[in-house]
Amino acid sequence: NNNEIIISNENNDEKQDQRMSPEDLINVEKTLLKKYDIENILARKQLMKIFSKLKKRNRTIIGYGATAKVNTVLNFCKIKSETLDYFLDTTPGKAGKFMPGSHLYIQRYNKALTHQVDYIFLGAWNFKKEIFKKEKKYIKNGGKFITHVPVPKII
What is the rounded CA–CA span in Å between residue 82 and residue 84? Predict the structure, then answer.
């Protein structure tokens, strides 16, 4: 049939084809996108609730790792300098610049700066292990990290 789309799925050396009309495929995609939108909106609310509670208690929060992917999160959540004081980054070319959209200042990484804050928002979450190892003294002294991956929480 010319009005069908064949979706192939290889599973355990077995090829499985599923035939679907373009309309059905669009409906499946719409359902998945709605679910994805809802999950992201809920995660944004959870993250902002964490930040809001900490700020009401006058806690200092900075970002760690001024990555492109965290920039997407900052802009989606509308996080600005009222929430995070600045970002630390080890990349020399980023120091002295601002994050696009949020206009958060990027400072060159300095270990002493991490010991002056209450919480650090983990921007380079894909390097969590390495960062936690590097910042073990901060953690040992009671410093906390905030992450949003896989769900927003304080670590």
Answer: 6
Instruction: Give pTM, 2 decimals.
Output: 0.81
Distances (CA, A) of 41 to 3, 5, 44, 98, 105: 35, 31, 5, 25, 26
Q: What is the DSSP string of 18-41?
A: EEE-HHHHHHHHHHHHHHHHHHHH
Output the CA angle 45-46-50, nearest 5 degrees: 115
Alpha-helix residue ranges (DSSP H) falling in the chain: 22-56, 68-77, 111-114, 128-134, 136-140
Residues 51-71: tens digit of each pLDDT? 999 999 999 999 999 999 999
Under DSSP, is residue 11 helix (H, G, I), strand (E, B) or coil?
A: strand
Interval 69-90: pLDDT, tens: 999 999 999 999 999 999 999 9
Q: Which residues in 20-46 are b (16+ Cβ under 10 Å) and which e?
A: eeeeeeeeeeeeeeeeeeeeeeebbee
pLDDT at 1 over 70: no
CA distances from 43 to 85, 102, 117 (A): 22, 19, 24
